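Section 3.1: Structural characterization of target chains.
Under the original work plan, the team committed to producing a structural model for every single-chain target entering the pipeline before any wet-lab resources were allocated. The record below documents one such target. The sequence was received from the expression subgroup and is listed exactly as submitted; it comprises 282 residues.
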Amino acid sequence: MMREKPTMTTLTDNCIANPMQATAAQIPGLWMMLREDIACVFQRDPAARNTLEVITIYPGVHALVLHRLAHSLWRYQLRYGARLLSFIARMLTQIDIHPGATIGRRFFIDHGCGVVIGETAEIGNDVTLYHGVTLGGTSWNAGKRHPTLGDGVVVGAGAKILGPVTIGNNARIAANSVVIEDVTAEMTVVGIPGRMVVPRHQRRITADGIDLDHHRMPDPVGKAIGCLLERIADLELQLAKLAGEGSAAGICQSCDSDDCAQPAFDGSLNPNPTSVPLYKHS
């Protein structure tokens, strides 16, 4: 069972363009899918050393193997057996995947603890989830109520994607984000509620097509606050000029600067603010 890591391949190799509309001829057999699920671990987890280790001690792999079996039972209308197998998988792995969920090829759950995937969730090929991710519903109706994830999506730890929203191909959901609206392909989403901030061409992607740079996430709320502070500083400067003070010291010149966190409201615009009124009455 011991062998070296397989050669890396890009995440888009041999992918189905739309796994939700794939024909029976395009869908591989259960054994082939399981082999791909195990092989893809080496592409996305540098800690994986050999096949024996992945098969025996990776809870994400265990949960996925049991889900593939449970989903087969679900498709044959053996609903109780499918739910029972899903229940056993949850006890063993702390990963809760409803047997009705549709999962594409080369799916990887890293660490795994606390992942929840609902009944009507649909997941494309080459998707990666980290621990604490929820693909949940927002309705008690029996219809489509869980998310659809396209190919190559990465969902960071603790993120929640709620409702029948669609996450476009190669999108990236930052850790602890809450997504309640559709996400355009190639975009990065951060925050609560989630906001799209960085397209794929501005991200650092490895030669293997994997993006694991989770710590470099923009902060759209912080940027907006920074711009508001800059605007306030600009207004202070204009008031200072009207009051006869020409100094621009203390003014933050750019909200895009990494060197200045906020304007310096330290009295530098007016060293003696009580000596000159800001407003002159006629």
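The longest strand covers residues 195-199.
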